[in-house]
Every structure is written in C-alpha cells, then in structure tokens.
C-alpha cells in the first residue's frame, strides 16, 4: 500500500495546502492512530486513522489535481525551449510532475487545471465529452442580439464550423463590451477567432470556468488543490461519485 508523508496526505485530502498542512501538523492538531504527530514527514497509508481537530481525514486520491488562475504572459505548457514562464513553474510540488489540462493562450488569463493523472486529463479535454469552458471577452464594439445569434448558431472558421456557443453581453464599457461566451470545443484561439469572425476583435480574454468549476476568489497566479466539491462541479455529482478522481 502506498505510503505518503503526513503533509502530503493532508494536502491530498483537501484539508489544506502543503504549506498550511505543515503548520497544522506542527501545531499539534494531527493524530495518527490516536498518537499526536508533529513531524510532517511521518509516513502514513490510507489504512491509518488520521484526525485533525478530532475529525477523521481520509485520502482516496494518490494523484494531484490543481486549479490555477493563470496570469497573462505565462505559457500553458510543461516546458519552453525559449525560457518563458510556464504554468508548471507556478505550481511546484515535490516529487510530482504536473501537466496542464488543455491550453490557454499566453495572452489569456484565468482558470486552468494541472494534473499528473492522464485519465483525468483525457476526461476533461477529449472532444467527445464537450466540456463547457466559459470565457469573459472584452471586445471592441457593441455586439447586438443579431451578432450574438451568429455565435449561438456556430461560426464558420478556416478549420470548419464551430459548435453553437452560448453568448451574452454582460456589460458595456465605453465603446466596448464584455461578452460571456461558453464553448464546448478546444480549438486553437477559438474564442478570439469566433469573435473576430463576427466583427468584434477581442481586447482581453479571461476563462472563468471549466464545466461548473469556477475560478471564484483565487487571485491571479494563485493555485489550490481541487476538493471533492470541485470534482462535483466539474463532472456533476453522479459522475464525480462514480469516477475514481477526487
Ligand atoms: N480561446 C481563445 O481564443 N484563447 C484561449 O486561450 C482559449 C480559448
């Protein structure tokens, strides 16, 4: 049976980040099989009874799932031969090699997931699942209902017709507008190309959710481990229960 450092065990169980887990352990709140443990490197397995503040903590995951608010000017790759900052430079976890789940342009900010679980990656990115991705795009100009209708019908791009998107103007900003757009594909620069094609070039782009999993209050550049409720938001309660993730 796989052994974890206690600190990793707590982080994987969603109790706290690695750093916070270290503090919780040092503060003496953590017991393993009834014995107070203050060493973050203490080894535990899923069979051990671990409690924090008297509450039992279980770990059902051995893989890592991260939600990151990607800043602008960061590549959504695992490495770059030109030395640019990659999402994996922002999330350093000991003994874990993470990969971004899908892509987000260098000049797009917002939610991106990272994992070391290939099945999870496949489930989120494979086109057959049509995972919804929601973006807020600041566009030049003010789209009318008729313009939005074109996005809702699907737009002819140079790589073919897109699936219908959900599209609404959520606010006007001077001569510009913020369009909330939801797509179910992951083509290269798809949102920019769709909005361009209907006459509204994108000035700024942010991804705010993947499935029902929202960025929430996570500040730019910050990340956290996904919790069970995040898997539920992403896949729905029923599927989250059946899947081995989370
Ligand atoms: N569509 C884009 O145009 N850019 C992204 O980063 C994601 C979707």
Describe the protein's architecture and organization.
With 246 residues, the chain is of the alpha+beta class. The protein has three domains: 4-57, Roll (Structural Genomics Hypothetical 15.5 Kd Protein In mrcA-pckA Intergenic Region, Chain A); 65-128 and 213-243, Pseudouridine synthase I, catalytic domain, N-terminal subdomain (Alpha-Beta Plaits, 2-Layer Sandwich); 132-210, Alpha-L RNA-binding motif (Alpha-Beta Plaits). 24% of the residues lie in helices and 30% in strands. It is built from eight helices and 17 strands. Strands 7, 8, 9, 10, 13, 14, 15, 16 and 17 form a nine-stranded mixed beta sheet that branches. Strand 8 and strand 9 form a beta hairpin. Helix 1 (6-12) crosses helix 2 (18-26). The radius of gyration is 21 Å and the shape is elongated. The two termini are 18 Å apart. Residues 104-105, 108, 189-192, 205 line the site of uracil.
Quickly list its features:
246 residues; alpha+beta; Structural Genomics Hypothetical 15.5 Kd Protein In mrcA-pckA Intergenic Region, Chain A; Alpha-Beta Plaits; 3 domains; nine-stranded mixed beta sheet; four-stranded antiparallel beta sheet; elongated; binds uracil
Short overview:
The chain has 246 residues and is α+β, with helices and mostly antiparallel strands. The chain contains eight helices and 17 strands.
């Amino acid at each position: 049976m796989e052994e974890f450092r206690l600190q990793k065990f707590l982080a994987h169980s969603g109790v706290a980040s690695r750093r916070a887990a270290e503090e919780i352990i040092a503060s003496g709140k953590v017991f393993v099989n009834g014995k107070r443990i203050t060493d973050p490197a203490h080894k535990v397995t899923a069979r051990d009874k671990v409690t924090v503040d008297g509450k039992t903590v279980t770990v059902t995951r051995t893989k890592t799932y991260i939600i990151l608010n990607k800043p602008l000017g960061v590549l959504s790759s695992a490495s770059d031969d030109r030395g640019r900052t990659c999402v994996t430079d922002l999330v350093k976890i000991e003994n874990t090699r993470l990969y971004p789940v899908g892509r987000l342009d260098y000049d797009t900010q917002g939610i991106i997931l990272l994992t070391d679980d290939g099945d999870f990656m496949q489930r989120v990115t494979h086109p057959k699942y049509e995972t919804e991705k929601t973006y807020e795009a600041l566009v030049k100009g003010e789209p009318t209902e008729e313009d939005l209708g074109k996005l809702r019908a699907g737009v002819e791009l140079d790589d073919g017709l897109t699936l219908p998107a959900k599209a609404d103007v959520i606010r006007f900003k001077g001569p510009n507008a913020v369009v909330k757009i939801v797509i179910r594909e992951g083509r290269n620069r798809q949102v920019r190309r769709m909005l361009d094609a209907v006459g509204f070039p994108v000035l700024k782009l942010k991804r705010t959710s993947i499935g029902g999993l929202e960025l929430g209050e996570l500040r730019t550049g910050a990340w956290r481990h996904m919790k069970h409720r995040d898997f539920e938001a992403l896949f729905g309660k029923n599927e989250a229960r059946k899947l081995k993730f989370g």
